[in-house]
Amino acid sequence: MHAAILIGLLLGVDSLSLATTNDQNTVKRHKVKIRISEKGQLAAARVTIRGQDGSFYAPENAVVRSLTSGNEYFYTNGECEVTLPETPSTLLVSRGIETLTEKLVLQPRRETRIMVELTRWTNLSTDSWYSGDSHVHLHTGGDFEVSISDALTAAQAEDLNYTNLNVSNNLGDDIRDAEFITGKPHPLSTDQHLLVFGEEMRSSIYGHMLLFGINKLVEPQYTGFDDTPQHYDYPPNFDQADETVKQGGVVSYGHPMFTDQPDPYVTDPLSHNGAALELPIDAIFDRAHAIDIMSYNSDEPLSAGLWYQLLNCGIRLSACVGTDALLDQSTDPLGGDRVYVKVDGPLSNQRWLDGLKKGRTFVTNGPMINLQVQGRSIGETIALKQPSSVRVNTKIDSLVPFDTVHVIMNGKAVVTKQYTPSKDADRVTTQTIDVSLPIRKSSWIAIHVTGPEDPRVLDGRAWAHTSPVYIEVSGKPIRHSEDAAYFVTWIDKLLNIVATRNRYPTPEDRERVETLFRKAQDLFRERQLNAD
Question: What distance lies between CA 208 and its chain's CA centroid?
Fold first, then answer.
C-alpha cells in the first residue's frame, strides 16, 4: 500500500448500522465514506470493492461495469459513500496507467471515513506527452443512462487527456450526439482532460475510420449495411476521409486486423468485414494519417505487421490507439490501451492533433518508451548524405512487467533484448538500449516492447510500440518491392469484393470506385518498380 491512509472516525452513530440476519448470525453493515485525492486534491478514480465472500459493493445508484476479466468496477469523482459489512472487504483504487493502484482492507465497526492518497509513478505530461483514445462511444443505445459529465468523470478516472467521443450508428438514421460535433473541446472539458466529439465512419467492407477534429458530421456516416438507408457500398471511404481533411481533421483506421485472420480477405466476399481493407488506398492518397494498432477489438501483432508494410512503402502512418470502449454499456475502460502524443506547448485540441498527424506518438497498455535516434525524437527525420551508421538510444520505464524489447528497422527486429520480469508488483523497472546500426538505404526505426499478462493490463499481455524515426539516405524515399507488391494484390482482392457484391446506386458509381482503387494500385506498382 502506497500513501493510502485509512482513518476510521468512530462517530458513535450505531443507529445507522444496518443488519442482515441469517438463521445462525447477524452481520452488521455501516456507511463508509471514501475520499480519493492526489497531492491533496480530489481525484476521480476507478474503484472496486469486494467482500470476502466475493460480493461486490458500490454506492447507491452507481453505474456498475465489468472488465473482461469479470471484475466489476465503478467510477467516482473522488468522493463516494458505500455501505459495507463488518466482515473484511478489499478496496482497489486505480487511476489510469501512470498511477499506483492502492489496495486497502476495510472492516468498519461503525460509520467510517476513508482517505486514499494516490501516487504517480510517472507523469508524462510534465514532458508534454499527453494520452488519448481515438475510439470511445458515449451513446450506443446501451442500458446505462450516461451524460457528457459522466464521460468527463471516466476520462479523469482513467487519467486520459484526450477522448475522441465518436458519433456513430449503422442501424438506421438514429445518429446520436451529432449536434455536439464542433471541432472544439466540449465546454465541460478541463485544461488536462479534453472531450472532443468526432465520428466513427463505418463501412461494412471498406473498414471503419475514426475522424478527429471535424466541425460537423461527415456523411454518409455508414455504408453497406443490409436493410438500412445506406445499404450501398458507396461512396468509398475516400470521400468521407477527403471531407475530413477539408474540415481540417485527422483520419485513423480502427481495429484494422482481427485475431486469427492474417488475410482479411479469406471470408466470403459477400459477408461484412470490419477490417481496414481500404486503408492502403486512403493512406497512399494521404487521406489516412494514422492506424489504431492497439484496440480491444483487433490483433496487435497482425495490425502492426500491416502497418510495417505500409511504412515500407514510404507511407508515414502514425501509431494510434482506439479501444472501442462503450460508456453506456459494460465494457473495459477507455484508455486501457492509449496513445501518447508529443505536444508543442500546453495541451490543446489542435496541438494534440498536430502531434498525432506528425507521428510524434507511442502506444501502450503499460510500458513507457523514450526513443532517440542520432539525437532525433519519434516522428522526426534524419537526413544522411550517404550510407552511414546511426546511434539508437531507448529507455523503457514500466510498472507492469515486460520481458522483451525489440529495435525494429523496416519491419524487422534488428536488436532484441530479453529481460527477467520483476515479480514485485509495485516496482518500476527501467531498461536502456544503446546501439549503433548501419544504414544502407532510407529506413525507419521504432521500438517494440512486450511482456507477460498482468492484472493491471486490460488488454492481454503488456504491449507498447513507438511510431518511427525516419532516415533518408541521399534524399531517396523508403521503398520495399515485396511490400508494394503485397498491396497490389491486396487491391486486386478488394476489387473482387466490389465486383462480387456489386452494391452501387449506378454502374457509373461502381466504375468511379474501381477507377479510384486502380489509381492507388498503380501507385503501389510504381513503388514496387522503383524500390532499391
Answer: 15
Helical H segments across 345-435, by residue range:
349-357
Q: Quick count: other Cβ atoms within 10 Å of Cβ 508?
A: 8
Residue whose C-alpha is closest to residue 449's, from 431, 433, 462, 435: 462
Check: CB of residue 488 under 8 Å from CB of residue 525. Answer: yes
- Residue 386 gets the label, from left (phi > 0), alpha (psi -120 to 50) or beta, of beta
> Which of 497, 488, 490 has the alpha carbon at shortest distance from 529?
488
pTM: 0.94
Q: How remote is the C-alpha of 168 from its chain's centroid?
A: 17
Q: What's at 82, amino acid-wise? A: V
Report residues of the chain scoring pLDDT below 70: 1-25
Nearest residue to 198 via CA among 109, 117, 138, 146? 138
Strand partners, 437: 390
293 CB-near residues (< 8 Å, 6+ apart): 256, 300, 303, 304, 307, 319, 320, 321, 363, 465
CA dist 423 to 1, 57, 101, 420, 429, Å?
16, 30, 16, 9, 10
Number of Cβ atoms within 10 Å of the Cβ of 136: 28
The count of C-alpha atoms lying within 13 angstroms of the C-alpha of 246, restricted to the half-sphere facing its C-beta, is 9
Burial of 502 (0-12, 13-18, 19+ CB in 10 A): exposed
Which residue matches cell numbers 467521443? 165
Neighbouring CB atoms inside 10 A of 450's CB total 17
pLDDT tens sequence across 87-97? 999 999 999 99
Quick one: angle between helices 507-529 and 481-501, nearest 10?
170
Identity of residue 373: V
Whole-number pLDDT of residue 148: 97
Helix (H) or strand (E) holding 377: strand 376-377
Report the alpha-carbon distance of residue 136 to residue 20 in Å, rounded: 41
Strands 194-203 and 162-167: parallel
Give the phi and the psi of residue 454 in degrees, each rounded to 5.
-150, 145
CA separation for the pair 135, 255 (Å, rounded): 10
Give the pLDDT confidence of 460-514 residue by residue, as tens digits. Answer: 899 999 999 999 999 999 999 999 999 999 999 999 999 999 999 999 999 999 9
Instruction: Give dist(CA 234, CA 231) in Å, integer.
Output: 8
**Angle, in degrees to the nearest 10, between helices 481-501 and 300-311:** 110
- With the C-alpha atoms ordered 200, 313, 376, 399, is the resulting torsion angle positive or negative? positive
To the nearest 10°, report the CA torsion of 227, 232, 238, 241.
-30
